[in-house]
Write a structure and sequence with these properties.
4 helices; eight-stranded mixed β-sheet; binds FE2/S2 (inorganic) cluster; binds iron/sulfur cluster; 11% helix
Length: 211
């Protein structure tokens, strides 16, 4: 699916349907701006201020919604702290200046950790139908505060293996607990690790195929 681009007077909204994981923050927070299941245009940028549109974008965990000003300047700000939130029975939700599989991926992305997505490394919601069961409250590891908490974050999906993540990153449980602070880690995406969210090598035993 191509990215929908909708021009308002001051702002441009980009919507990438393949990234959307249907958390519905957009349609619940601003049902006047995002009006699904209607004929014709369903995104109405001029019904919100630029600041409000930016807030909608920031609350979109998948990065499906991105906003720029009409003059082309990028006005979404990078987060001050790079994070990945471990979603209960669901994906890994990253917030950071992301490069994923060698491509600029913006500041937000939800990546598959159940192994069932047809759009790996991105989540496509398949965890629900697959009955994926994994805690959003993993145990915390011993860690110390990072010297720097932001900056570029690279996610390299290893073929038939985990997500190799490089850069400053804080791992966060569903309730907001910090469970680790790292500059490099390998996160399970086969759904079978015994020490989720980290890879423990089980992908080899279960013959995980990433494509
Ligand atoms: S992932 Fe983003 S675009 Fe999709 S429903 Fe949620 S907030 Fe809306
Ligand atoms: S990717 Fe799941 S155990 Fe390695």
């Amino acid at each position: 699916m191509s990215i929908e681009t909708v021009h308002g007077r001051e702002m441009i909204v980009h919507f990438d349907g393949e990234r959307c994981v249907h958390t519905r923050h957009c349609v619940l927070d601003r049902p006047d701006v995002f009006v699904p299941n209607t004929p014709g245009e369903w995104i109405h940028p001029d019904r919100a201020t630029p600041a409000e549109l930016l807030e909608i974008a920031h609350n979109c965990p998948s990065g499906a919604i991105r906003c720029t000003s009409a003059d082309g300047a990028l006005i979404e700000a990078a987060p001050l702290v790079n994070t990945v939130r471990v979603r209960e029975n669901g994906p890994l939700a990253f917030r950071a200046p992301l490069t994923i599989d060698g491509h600029d991926a913006g500041y937000r992305a939800t990546l598959c950790r159940c192994g069932a997505s047809a759009r790996k490394p991105y989540c496509d919601g398949a965890h629900a139908a697959a009955g994926f069961s994994a805690s959003g409250e993993p145990a915390a590891a011993e860690s110390t505060p990072l010297a720097q908490r932001n900056g570029a974050l690279t996610v390299e999906p290893i073929r038939d293996g985990p997500l190799h993540v490089s850069g400053n990153l804080e791992l966060i449980a569903g309730t907001g607990r910090t469970i680790n602070r790292v500059v490099e880690c390998w996160l399970c995406r086969c759904g079978q690790s015994g020490k989720k969210p980290y890879c423990d090598g089980t992908h080899k035993r279960v013959n995980f195929r990433s494509s």
